[in-house]
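Design job #97: recover the sequence.
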């Protein structure tokens, strides 16, 4: 394998002297790291110095580690120095140009989405004029009507309960294990705790500090009948890297629940797991018997850093690699600290899977795999789908780096979208959000409960750095290479080898003599030669959407199935017929198609089964026995 075709190692900045970070190597990095200097001043410096690989790293088989250098896969992040008058003027200029140009870009998308919806509008109008119900064509029409009736009945029940003034509960509600503490007509707000209380649960919000100084949100979904609020944290607690939880279990002697961390996708927050009432993945797993934690990436709904301010471009100098190496690691360590377990189950969607794939790679933080019992990837984003050729994405890919920053700035990516959230009525915001995302990404709501659709888009979009979007869509990142962990040249080389192997298999296994050029190709791109992971990678399970044009999950399945990742142990895989990118979270049949299987996979791979409560429905699920890795 060639060093220049692999992702560069991310240097861990010396902000937080905790956990396993100290054992990380000081490898050559192409990415900016943030360091504290005098009186809280910060300099972002590009680590251009050489690095040394210790003996442990050499034993993992990284023959090319000594020559790691800046790669084309993760281009060097800009090096912003401390603010000076000249720099401030430059940043102000970029803010002004990006406000105007990105607004025009956004308006063009909105306008295009409206124009392309005209045929559908005419079609619906024709059905209405001919006294027919257009919605009857929807896949789950009858179930949608039933759920809408159920929600209206619950609203009436809540009104009666509130009108009594004594908090009395109907006999039907008394029979429920989880008593809602919120109800009535949905105001459609971006507040996960509110929606948790509507289904008889609650959410504790915790701030976690990453190693490069970002304060990110971790949400704990819990059953109020099992927890009580502890005393306020002391001043000593507040100085800790991981602040103590304010919730305590009522019965400390009772069996614990297995912890599960959920991680969201691009331009979303973890609220995406909580907006489907009882059929939300987070609430469903919690009621099934898991200890559910929801991780949010840096900035998200509220950009916060230990020292940097949101108007400082150094606060936005990060991309997918930092989200995996720093954010995921901090979230995992925080959950393990609070639960006391050595491992947790990890469930990710879309970009959450991408940052995990990167973080677990042997050049990044492979030791993180020892803390994960299983990695469940929903709509795994390792390879690009055909949608990357969309006209808008091609336009962004064609922009040179300097022009990209003129159009989209050096701070957050189109922050106007988030600022409009508080100004536009929530139902209108939800409709606009669906129209724009549906147009850009080709999604439909055919399998969703349309009565909840406006709520789904209250947790999207969120703040993300322009550098992250440049990596996803620009001309030197994911859109160019089509993969999160391999360059375009490597992908093409692997394809050539796979095609030749397929020809030999079709010929009955007859192997012809190879030329020297072909032998070099096999040595460079043969099975296992370009493996991303070593023996520390955790078991994986994949749920791939058949009609997902945004990412190519089936290609990833082929990679795992044809021996290119000999160390990856695939516990479960499924290609879900008719599913699109977001259906794994929001489809009305997602419980049967996805959630039940996720529940079972989490339990069958859980190492401490005797110490934990058996999740509902998992009584007969046997423990998973790993197969011997391929040689």
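Job complete. Output follows.
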């Amino acid at each position: 394998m060639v060093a220049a075709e692999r992702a560069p190692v991310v240097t861990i900045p010396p902000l937080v002297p905790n956990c396993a970070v100290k054992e990380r190597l000081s490898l050559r990095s192409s990415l900016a790291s943030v360091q504290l200097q005098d009186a809280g001043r910060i300099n972002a410096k590009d680590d251009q110095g050489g690095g040394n690989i210790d003996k442990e790293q050499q034993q993992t088989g990284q023959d090319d580690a000594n020559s790691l250098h800046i790669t084309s896969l993760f281009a060097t992040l800009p090096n912003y120095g401390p603010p000076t008058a000249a720099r401030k003027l430059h940043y102000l200029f970029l803010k002004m140009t990006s406000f105007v140009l990105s607004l025009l870009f956004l308006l063009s998308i909105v306008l295009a989405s409206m124009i392309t919806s005209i045929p559908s509008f005419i079609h619906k109008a024709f059905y209405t004029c001919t006294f027919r119900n257009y919605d009857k064509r929807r896949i789950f029409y009858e179930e949608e009507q039933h759920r809408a009736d159920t929600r209206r009945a619950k609203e009436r029940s809540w009104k009666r309960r509130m009108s009594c003034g004594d908090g009395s509960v109907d006999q039907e509600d008394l029979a429920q294990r989880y008593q809602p503490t919120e109800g009535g007509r949905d105001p459609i707000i971006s507040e996960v705790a509110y929606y948790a209380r509507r289904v008889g649960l609650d959410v504790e919000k915790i701030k976690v500090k990453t190693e490069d100084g970002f304060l990110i949100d971790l949400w704990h979904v819990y059953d109020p009948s099992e927890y009580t609020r502890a005393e306020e944290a002391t001043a000593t607690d507040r100085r800790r890297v991981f602040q103590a939880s304010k919730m305590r279990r009522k019965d400390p002697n009772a069996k614990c629940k297995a912890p599960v961390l959920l991680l969201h996708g691009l331009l979303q927050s973890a609220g995406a797991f909580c907006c489907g009432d009882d059929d939300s993945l987070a609430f469903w797993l919690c009621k099934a018997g898991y200890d559910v934690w929801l991780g949010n990436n840096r900035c998200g709904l509220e950009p916060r850093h230990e020292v940097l301010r949101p108007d400082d471009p150094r606060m936005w100098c990060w991309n997918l690699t930092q989200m995996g190496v720093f954010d995921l690691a901090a979230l995992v360590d925080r959950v393990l600290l609070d639960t006391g377990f050595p491992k947790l189950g990890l469930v990710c969607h879309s970009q959450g899977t991408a940052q995990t794939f990167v973080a677990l790679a042997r050049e990044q933080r492979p030791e993180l795999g020892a803390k994960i019992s299983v990695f469940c990837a929903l709509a795994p984003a390792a390879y690009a789908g055909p949608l990357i050729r969309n006209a808008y994405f091609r336009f962004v890919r064609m922009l040179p780096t300097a022009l990209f920053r003129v159009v989209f700035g050096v701070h957050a990516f189109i922050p106007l979208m988030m600022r409009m959230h508080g100004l536009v009525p929530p139902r209108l915001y939800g409709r606009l959000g669906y129209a724009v995302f549906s147009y850009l990404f080709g999604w439909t709501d055919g399998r969703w409960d349309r009565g909840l659709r406006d709520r789904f888009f209250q947790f999207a979009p969120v703040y993300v750095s322009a550098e992250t979007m440049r990596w996803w869509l620009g001309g030197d990142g994911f859109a160019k290479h089509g993969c999160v962990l391999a360059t375009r040249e490597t992908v093409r080389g692997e394809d050539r080898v796979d095609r030749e192997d397929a020809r030999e298999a079709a010929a009955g296994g007859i192997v012809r003599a190879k030329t020297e050029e072909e032998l070099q190709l096999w040595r460079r791109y043969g099975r296992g030669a370009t493996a991303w992971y070593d023996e520390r990678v955790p078991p994986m399970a994949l749920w791939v959407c058949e009609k997902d044009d945004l990412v190519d999950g089936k290609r990833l399945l082929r990679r795992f199935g044809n021996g290119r990742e000999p160390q990856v142990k695939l516990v479960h895989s499924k290609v879900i017929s008719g599913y699109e990118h977001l259906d794994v979270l929001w489809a009305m049949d997602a419980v049967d198609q996805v959630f039940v299987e996720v529940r079972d996979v989490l339990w069958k791979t859980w190492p401490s089964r005797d110490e934990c409560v058996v999740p509902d429905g998992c009584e007969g699920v046997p423990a998973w026995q790993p197969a011997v890795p391929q040689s």
